[in-house]
From TrEMBL:
<protein>
    <submittedName>
        <fullName>Uncharacterized protein</fullName>
    </submittedName>
</protein>
């Protein structure tokens, strides 16, 4: 295993933790998700964190962005279903399955060895490249196996995705090893709620803006955040301009959820 460091915030820490666990690292049960500024994946398989911007370490860490970490998971998983591009070769050979990483480098799926190999011949300027439209369920909401075990212990309903891509109920009768490997995806069972609320419209922030967003880690239900680069803004999270606006959102949601 390698030594990595990933800068995170309240919105990205959980995803980074799950991705690292998919690479085989272990975070443990007392992991401080609400305090982390940096995550450190160690060569011994453990993950630690720093709650400050500055840190001192004798270890030489390779810094990764969240998109780069996602790429590592895909390349580690070696699943042809992760292909996001295809390239027609010939009628007899069909199409070559490709994965374009966040740095625009292409990897070709080798059918014989069942793994991704860095392509020397395919580049972003290839005219015959065809993007593959994502058909898999949006993976927002996935949890790690360790988190799934803790959720079961807390009495929550957990589901796992079986080999037929169906979500089925997970319970304490399943072997612990099932939760510790990378063979299955897990999620908390979705709940249907009824909302009857009116809230201020969110906006699309720019780098450097101070914004307000919902946060399950805050007693108030929201937090302020500043983005130092475009990757700090998460596409599926809504942002508001002022604290007064986010207060209205929290009040409306807490009053409008009927269960």
């Amino acid at each position: 295993m390698n030594n990595y460091k990933i800068k995170v915030n309240g919105a990205t820490t959980k995803e980074a933790q799950i991705l690292l666990e998919k690479l085989g690292y272990t975070t443990g049960t007392g992991f401080g998700l609400n305090h982390a500024v940096w995550l450190f994946a160690e060569s011994n398989g453990t993950v630690n964190y720093s709650s400050t911007e500055d840190f001192i370490s004798d270890i030489d860490y390779q810094e990764l962005t969240l998109p780069q970490l996602r790429d590592l998971v895909v390349l580690h998983r070696n699943d042809v279903n992760d292909a996001n591009f295809k390239l027609f070769i010939s009628p007899s050979q069909g199409c070559l399955s490709l994965y374009k990483a966040s740095d625009d480098v292409f990897y070709a799926y080798a059918e014989k060895s069942k793994c991704w190999d860095k392509s020397r011949s395919v580049g972003i300027k290839n005219k015959d490249l065809e993007p593959i439209q994502a058909s898999k369920e949006d993976e927002q909401g996935l949890i790690s196996g360790a988190y799934a075990l803790r959720a079961l212990a807390d009495g929550k309903e957990v589901e796992l995705r079986d080999k037929e891509n169906n979500w089925v109920r997970a319970n304490n009768h399943h072997l612990v090893g099932l939760f510790l490997g990378n063979a299955f995806d897990f999620r908390l069972k979705p709940r249907t709620i009824t909302l009857n609320v009116g809230i201020p419209a969110p906006f699309e922030p720019k780098v450097g803006d101070v914004v307000w967003c919902l946060s399950e880690l805050s007693e108030k239900g929201y937090e302020a955040r500043t983005a130092y680069d475009a990757e700090d803004f998460i596409p599926h999270i809504a942002y508001w301009r002022t604290e007064e606006e986010i207060k209205q959102v929290v009040v409306a949601l807490r009053g409008g959820i009927k269960g």
